[in-house]
Predict the structure of Caffeoyl-CoA O-methyltransferase.
Amino acid sequence: MRSKYGMLSPPGQVRLLQFLVQQFNSKNILEVGTFTGYAAFGMAEVMAPGGKVTGIELETFFCDFVNDRAKKNNLNVEVKEGEAISVLQSLAREGNQFDFIYIDCVKEEYYDYYKIIMENNMLPPQGIIVCDNVLWRGTSVTRSNDTGRKVDDFNTAISQDKRVSSARSQGAKGAAPLTNSWLRPCLLPGFCCLCLKQFWSRPYPNLPSLLGIC
Ligand SMILES: C[S@@+](CC[C@H](N)C(=O)[O-])C[C@H]1O[C@@H](n2cnc3c(N)ncnc32)[C@H](O)[C@@H]1O
């Protein structure tokens, strides 16, 4: 169980998510990979009035834990149990749209999630997807293991996808140098926010956005 603690998004990153949720005035939020609900509750705390966070989680224990805590604390958070790909497909079939999507699940499946979201119009034009771990401890740059290569393939596909405006930024899990053309990594959360201002100026206002957090 101890190793699972590392799955939590770090506090600085949840603060960044909250900041983005507030800036985008997000209401319908989806989190792919919910674990104990730390990021989900963080986003629920600041989402627009009447909003909802829908989580997707494979493990029954975490689903029950989060759904129970949500009920007890009167927070509109609901976790759906199952494999992320099949739950996403069923949300798509039901015609759901989410204006804020946080992807933090199986790294090798990120592109599958993305394709389901985009092909089924689940992200409205002003929506944003935030993906965790797009550096994957540097291995997405060095392509030195299978996961790193998959994450790099995902990063490359996103950066070439004209349907979204994308940026990559340092999150809260430590520094790693980036040498590609995306946003340079920032070490301090405050500085990170400054850089992201460029991102918020939204040069392509009709496009949804994708932010990768390293
Ligand atoms: C990195 S953790 C999520 C952390 C959470 N976003 C947070 O910030 O606290 C990834 C979660 O995805 C779940 N998971 C793993 N494989 C999955 C799958 N195929 N479908 C759905 N959830 C899965 C794990 O059980 C784990 O709780």
